[in-house]
C-alpha cells in the first residue's frame, strides 16, 4: 500500500513551515513555490499535498530517462537523470511534482517537514480516513481544473 504525508485539515494551521523546511533542506533555498509539499486552503481547512506514491504512478510511466523509479514503495527521483522535460509534472494527478532550476523535484519522505511542523500533526501514513473523502475529492477536482486551465 502506498505511503504518503498526511495531516487532518482541522489540525493544520496553514503556516507553511513545512514548505520552507522542504526547500531549505533539499534545495538549499527558502522557496515555497518549489516545495515538494504544498499547503492548500480549501474552505475552512488547510490541506497538505505531496507525492502519494501511487501504486500505478503515471510520473514513472512518462519519464523518458527513468529518472523516476520506485524504491521500497516510495517513488524516488534522480535529479541527475532528470532532463527537465516536465512530463512528470503534467502526468501527476495530484500536482505533487515541483520544478526547480530546470529539473523536477518531489517528496521522498525525508521527514524534515514532519520534524519542523509546529503542531506535530504531520505524519507518514498508509491509510486513508474515509471521513475525509468528500473534502479530498473536492481538492482533486479543483487541482484538476487548475491543471486543465479551467
What does this structure look like?
With 150 residues, the protein is of the alpha+beta class. It has a domain of 91 residues: Alpha-Beta Plaits (2-Layer Sandwich), CATH 3.30.70. The chain is 28% helix and 20% strand. The protein contains five helices and eight strands; from the N terminus they run βαββαββαββαβα. The chain has a two-stranded antiparallel ribbon. Strands 2-3 form a two-stranded antiparallel ribbon. Strand 4 and strand 5 form a beta hairpin. The termini are far apart.
Indicate the CATH topology of the domain at 4-53 and 93-133.
Alpha-Beta Plaits
* Estimated radius of gyration: 15 Å
Strand content: 15-25%
Secondary structure: helix percent: 25-40%
Q: At the first level of CATH, what is the class of the domain at 4-53 and 93-133?
A: Alpha Beta
Shape: globular
Q: What's the count of strands? A: 8
Please tell me the CATH architecture of the domain at 4-53 and 93-133 by its name: 2-Layer Sandwich
Order of helices and strands: EHEEHEEHEEHEH
Order of neighbouring strands in the sheet with most strands: 1-8
The low-confidence parts are none
Please work out how many helical segments DSSP would assign. 5
Main beta-sheet strand count, sense and barrel state: 2 strands, antiparallel
Amino acid at each position: 500500500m502506498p505511503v504518503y504525508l498526511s495531516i487532518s485539515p482541522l489540525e493544520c494551521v496553514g503556516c507553511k513551515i513545512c514548505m520552507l523546511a522542504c526547500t531549505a533542506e533539499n534545495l538549499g533555498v527558502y522557496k515555497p513555490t518549489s516545495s515538494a509539499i504544498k499547503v492548500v486552503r480549501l474552505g475552512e481547512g488547510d490541506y497538505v499535498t505531496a507525492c502519494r506514491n501511487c501504486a500505478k504512478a503515471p510520473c514513472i510511466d512518462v519519464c523518458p530517462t527513468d529518472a523516476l523509479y520506485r524504491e521500497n514503495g516510495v517513488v524516488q527521483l534522480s535529479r541527475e537523470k532528470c532532463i527537465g522535460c516536465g512530463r512528470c509534472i503534467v502526468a501527476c494527478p495530484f500536482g505533487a511534482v515541483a520544478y526547480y532550476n530546470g529539473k523536477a523535484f518531489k517528496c521522498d519522505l525525508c521527514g524534515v517537514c514532519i520534524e519542523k511542523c509546529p503542531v506535530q500533526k504531520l505524519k507518514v501514513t498508509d491509510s486513508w480516513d474515509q471521513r475525509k473523502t468528500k473534502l479530498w475529492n473536492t481538492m482533486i477536482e479543483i487541482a484538476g481544473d487548475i491543471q486543465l486551465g479551467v
